[in-house]
Design goal:
Radius of gyration: 18 Å
CATH superfamily: Vaccinia Virus protein VP39
Helix content: 25-40%
Structural class: alpha/beta
Strand content: 15-25%
Mean pLDDT: 92
Shape: globular
CATH topology: Rossmann fold
Largest sheet: 6 strands, mixed
CATH class: Alpha Beta
Number of domains: 1
Oligomer: single chain
Strand order of the largest sheet: 5-4-6-7-10-9
Order of helices and strands: HEEEHHEHEEHEHEHEE
């Protein structure tokens, strides 16, 4: 470990993981002046919080996204999550697309399948009213990697889900430390936290929820019934 890495490690010693709250993270690497850490408990990797983009910087970047609800290729991409989720939902379920963006394609797909879907996005659908209700499912596609405080965000998402309901997350799993430096997902300036399948398994165990990974980059987490833990 270099002297710079040792200094960064010591500066961060004792800081809780922003994903699971574990009390200590390890220094991971520096890439282009951006400092990354890894949690020894949940295995998440994350950017040091002091280097998070501002709200204005993030919004400017999001405006460059082109997520057309009618784009067949985009729909195929989202079907990695929608197909396994739909297979687990009862008819007429009610859900929330959390972080839906300006073009909520997934919500449209789920509505076409017969489910009611509310929308929330802090930039594009900021009305907080849907956050005061509960749902049979909550979807979070290509959003969790943007969370500046993932522990708090996941606590909010859990509170939105009814007993036996589902939290469906899509995010590109981090799998290879050797490729992290050149990984396209890391290069997005608004991506500040990176998860492994093991990260979600760890979170589910800590919550007392079920966890399934039907395909790579998709995780389905089910809240237990009224007799289980919340």
């Amino acid at each position: 470990m270099t002297a710079v890495a040792a200094t960064l490690r010591d500066a961060h010693d004792g800081i809780a993981c922003p994903v699971c709250g574990a009390p200590r993270s390890e220094w991971f690497m520096v890439v282009g002046g951006r400092e990354y850490w890894r949690c020894i408990e949940c295995e998440a990797r994350y950017l040091t919080p002091a280097q998070h983009p501002s709200r204005e910087e993030a919004y400017a970047h999001y405006l460059q996204h082109e997520n057309d609800p009618n784009d067949s290729r985009y729909r195929r991409f989202l079907s990695k999550l929608s197909d396994p989720l739909l297979a687990r939902l009862a008819a007429g379920a009610r859900g929330l697309d959390y972080g839906c963006g300006p073009g909520p394609a997934l919500a449209a797909m789920l509505r076409e399948a017969g489910h009611a879907v509310a929308l929330y996005d802090p930039f594009f659908h900021p009305d907080p009213a849907p956050l005061s209700e509960t749902y049979d499912f909550v979807t979070c596609t290509e959003v969790a990697e943007h969370f500046h405080n993932p522990n708090a965000e996941f606590a909010r998402l859990r509170a939105l889900i009814r007993p036996n309901g589902w939290l469906a997350v899509m995010t590109c799993f981090q799998t290879d430390d050797a490729r992290f430096k050149d990984w396209h997902y890391r290069k997005d300036p608004t991506h500040v936290v990176f998860y492994r399948a093991a990260t979600f398994m760890y979170l589910a165990r800590s919550w007392g929820w079920r966890c399934e990974v039907p395909v790579k980059d998709v995780v389905l987490m089910q809240r237990p019934g009224t007799q289980g833990r919340a």
